[in-house]
Every structure is written in structure tokens, then in C-alpha cells.
Amino acid sequence: MRRIVVRLIESDAFPFEFLSQLAERESWRKEIHRPIYHVHKWWAKRLGSVFRGILLGCILDEADDLGAEFYRTHELEQVTVFDPFMGSGTTIGEAHKLGCTALGRDINPVAVRSARVAFGPMNRRRLESEFADLSDTVGQRISALYSSKDSRGDACDVLYFFWVMQAPCVACGWPVDLFSSWVLARNAYPDRKPRVHVVCPFCADIFPARHDQAMVTCASCAERFDPLRAPAKGAKATCRECHQTFTILEAIHGTRPDFRLYGKLVLTAQGRKEYLPATAADHAGYRECAERLQADVQAGRVDLPTLRLEEGYNTGQAMRYGFRSWRDFFNDRQLLALGWLHAAIAAMEHQAARSALLTVFSGTLEFNNLFASYKGEGTGAVRHMFSHHILKPERTPIEAHVWGTPKSSGSFSNLFRNRLLRAIEYRHAPTEISNPLGRKPTVCARPFRGVIGRRWPTDGSLHRRAIYLSCGDSADTGLPAQSIDYVITDPPFFDNVHYSELADFFYAWQQLTEPKCGRRTTRDPCEVQDPDATRFAGKLMAVFQECRRVLKDPSLLVFTYHHSREEGWNALAEAILGAGFVVVNSQPVKAEMSVATPKSAAKEPIQLDIIVVCRKQSAGVPARPWSVEEALSSARSKLGRLRACGFRLSRNDRNIVVYGQLLTALGSAAEIPRVVAAAEREMRRLDQVEHEASTDSGSARSDCRRPRTSRAVDYGGNSRGRRSGPSEQQRTLFE
What we know:
By secondary structure, this protein is of the alpha+beta class. Helices cover 35% and strands 17% of the residues. The longest helix has 23 residues, at 672-694.
């Protein structure tokens, strides 16, 4: 039998603590540290430092030093890497930086289009020239739509208009403003900057107050009121005319609600910001935009999306509020400005520049719609529509200046500079976050080539350090058998975020310039995402079977995964084993930013990913898997290592480390119930350990943002006869 070389990522010596601490730093400003993966919105983007570590861990022997190799420039031109769930392209970019030949495939055309721009040709000088032409033409026209008067009556720019959703009272028919609070704006740090701005419910004026005031007095009409007691509370609202309380959805009755313009934030000629109530002139200006939009659409000067929403896991809530078409997500002024801008970019002759700027335009959509809201002061002002990973109708939406000013956020001009130009800079000098803290990022790779292979290499002809991208079902890639060295990916989590339902928001506009793609929607029956665990397992198994076919012997399938529920792990195990793979080890690693909105809202947030390492069952892998006791011992050791270097773990974090390691104890699907029972017993034991540690008055808790010495919980157990921690040289990198 052919001798299998054990790779570092298969060994318990893999220094996941080192990667986790780098990932912790990267997660706070992902778009700064890896801007190339942030030219456009995609969901569940994984961290570049983690995937660089995974790639190196697959290639290095178990005795090698990842900490040292991480900061070296590599030329791995003989290595071919495939990602069947490419998404934003993290695997592709990190493989390219290491000199590998990288192949990426995704079933969603929105993901593939943005990746083609991120890795394809971009000439900064031409892009800046095209942007300047836009600024002098359509940019000026759009800016005129956002002009108003300040408190002195002088002309000024509007940074943001403020709107409120209305619902008719079911008793008297009065249009009820669905404010949940009369506080319009507050600072992100209220203890340091306690001033807020309040909307008066009696005269509609906007005036300053303090965030801790229980009662405020309007400076204009002298009325006193509680700024936190407003008509809308949860799913219900109370009419201020007849005092009837009613259910909001019942009042809306499936029809898209009306929105009322009530305020604005302006930038005066002197550079001051002022919160002001909307005037009669502001309302007249909006009505004029609505009339111009209708005229431009009828004359064919503006092309707007026609794609309609379909029922789904993520779309259902928006549809209950009467949003039936993706066009419904915008007000008329937004549609006019976006329609003008889209038409101007689509008319550009240079294809690469047109594609890049259309991608910036597409990114602008998520900040300029009726689902965007106001964050307040002290941070980026616009909270984009996908901050919760769902389509949640916003009752007090913000309308930002679409073209933008130097003082606004979420605009086309802002994203051009902060996304596209920043990505170009990174492509010229790809950097890695340095360790220890305080050191500047280090350039560890040659510049990106900016070239994508013209054709998907179904004939097996690959160029060294080339990038190949394809849109299609990854269960049928067309690639030659045994042509890939490593498959490294991040598959969907079956019931968390349904990418295609959300991506249709962008695709509705993308269709306008790509009518020949032949797809009415990004939804596809082959998409590996399904609320039914059995169907999800079958779809994932089909992709893994294709991965097994294209992988060389011997080689590795490595992917990241987490799920809070047993059924998510059962489905994964069925897919792995059914595709002919066996799990040889798993490694915990820090995942997304700890304070991300979906995480901060969870009672037991998951802050880790599990790196699952697989080999083909017939590729020299021993028939006997790990025993349950060996797997649990390794899980306890890894939990202890994370705690020892300062990571604070939730119950779900402990849960996924246990489940991830117990995958190594599976030789067949018939063994899943036995292993699940072992996981449940272990979680009860760990809960008891944590309870005892929390009641120990001498125990110290660690700050997950800045690792420090703490009393580590003794989980017990040793690794499976392998090194249980990193080498001395590696340890010095993160202590």
C-alpha cells in the first residue's frame, strides 16, 4: 500500500490557536485587511488568514512550522486547488497568493460575477478616468436631487432623508406613523456623547436632548413627552387619534405600506451638519422625482428591474408586508437616481471598467433602499439592509445621497473609493496581519495577476498560477478525474441563510445588463441549501462525490463548518460518508467577528468554525476510525488549548468542537446514533465542568478580543498519541 504522508492539518499539532488569534484581529475589519473579497456583498464570508493557514496546513508536513511558513512568499505552482462553493472567492484568492492554480465554481451568478471583477483585469488609471466622467455628468444630476435649504435658508446638500412607515388604524383609518421611538439619532457612545435628536410627535420639529432624559420638552411647541413611548411596539401599534391598539400586519393587509418623509440631515456650506424637519419644498422635490421617473421609464431612458419575489425562507417576511417585486424595495427618488447611474455605466465601451463599476453600483443597492436604516452618529451612518441576514422591513428607513458627499456613507462614490480602489491597492501588495500585536501588515505574496482563464478547463489543460471561474452545479463540474490536488471550501449551512433568495435583490438589476444568461432567478433546485436535513445531505453528498472523483489519490478534502443543532451535524456526516470520505481530524478556529449582529443577538453565539479534514476511504486511510474515547479526549484537549490562550467559549462553541471531533469516530452512517449519544453525554459533562468553574470565586474570565492569562478550565483528556499543542517556536508567535 502506498505510504500516506501525514499533513500538518491532519495532526493535533496544527496550531489553530495561532490562526485563531490572527482571525480575531482580521474579523474586526475584514474589509480593510482583505478588501479583495469585499468588492461586493456576499454572505458568511470566511477569513482569509484562516484559509491561508488551511492551505499551508494541507501542504506542510506535520513537523513543519506554520507560524514561520505563514509569512514566507511561496511559489506552489504545481499545486491545484478547487473550491466548489466559491462565494466571495476567499479560497481562490488565498491559493493564488501562494502561487497555486485555483479553480472556483458557484451556482449563484451574483457570486461569480463579483469574483470575476475581484480577480480579473482592473486598470486603476482607466477606472479613475471613467469615474471622473461619471462624476461630471450623472453624478451632478443625482446630486441635484439631494439639494435643499438649511436652517438659514441657504442652499445645502442633503446627506440623508428620514422616512417612517405608516399603517392605517383599523378603527378610524388614520395613518399611524410606526415610530418605535421618537429618538431620531444618537451617538454610538452615549456615555461619552449623550446628545440625541428627537422628533416631536406634536409639531414634527426636530430638537436636541440627552439620551438619559425620561421626559423632554419640544423647543418649538413646548409640549412634554416621553421620547421612548411611541406608537409602534413589536408587532402592534396604537393610534394617537382614537387610541385603538392593532396588529400592524393586519392593518397593512398584504399591501406595501406608505412611507412619510419627516426629516433630513443636511450639510451646510460651512461644513456643519443639521437635523431639520422636512419642508413643503422637500415634499415637492420628491413628487417631482416621481414624475420624472415615470417619464424616463416611458421614454426608455431608464430601465428598472421587473423580477418578482417568490415565497421562501428569507423572502416571506418582506412579502407579508406587501413587497412583491424587487423594485418595491426602493422609493421613487432612489429608483430615478439608480436608474440614471445604471444607464450611464452600462453605456461604457470598455468592458473591464464597465464590469467593475457595475459591481460597485450593485454594492450601492444594499445601502440605498427602503430596508436600510440609520445607525446614528459615531459610526458609519447607514445600516445596510442585510445586517441581520434577513429581509426585515424597516419601519424608519433612511434615504442616503445615492452619489454621495465626502461626509456621507453608503454612496456610489464612497464605495468606489473604499471598496474598489482599496481592492486594487491590495492586489498590488497582498499583505498578511502580523503577529504579535502592533506590527504593520507584511507583504507575503506576489501581486495578483488580474487574469482569469477564458474557458473552464474541462480538458484538463491548466496554466500555472492561473485562476479559473465557473457558474454552475458543483455536482457536475466537467473537470477530468483525479485532476485536483486539494478541495478546500466552505459549504452552506443548510437552514441558516438562503443565499439565492437574498441574492435575487442584486440579480434583479444584474439581469438588465446580462439578459443572455438565461436565468430568471438565482434560485436553483441544485443549490446546496434546504430546510429539510435529508434533502440537504443528499445535495451536499452529490457535490462531495464529484469532489472525490476529481481529487487525486491520495489527497484531502478540507472544509469549514459549524451548526448549533444535532440535525446539522447528522446531515453533514451522512454527506461525508455517503460520498466515500472519512474524517481524519478536525480543528477549531475563530470565525466571524464576535459582535456581528446575528451573533450578538444569539443567547449562545457560535464564534468558532470547525475545519473538517477528510480523505478518500480507499486512499490508504486505515479502516478503523478513531474510538469515541479518543475523539472526546482530543476535543477536550483542543477546548483547553483555546481557553488557555484566552478565548471565551459559549456552550455552542463547546458543542461544535465535540461534534466536529466525533466525526473522526464514524466509519459508517449506521454509527451516527451511537456517536450522537456520546456527544450528548459529553456536553452534559462539560456543562457540569463549566458550572463548577463559574462558581469558583477564584476563576478569571478572559476577554475574547485580547487574549490574556486566565484560569483555564480543566476539560481533561489527552490527544490521540500526537502532539497536543504547537511547537515552542510557534508558541512564541502568539504568546
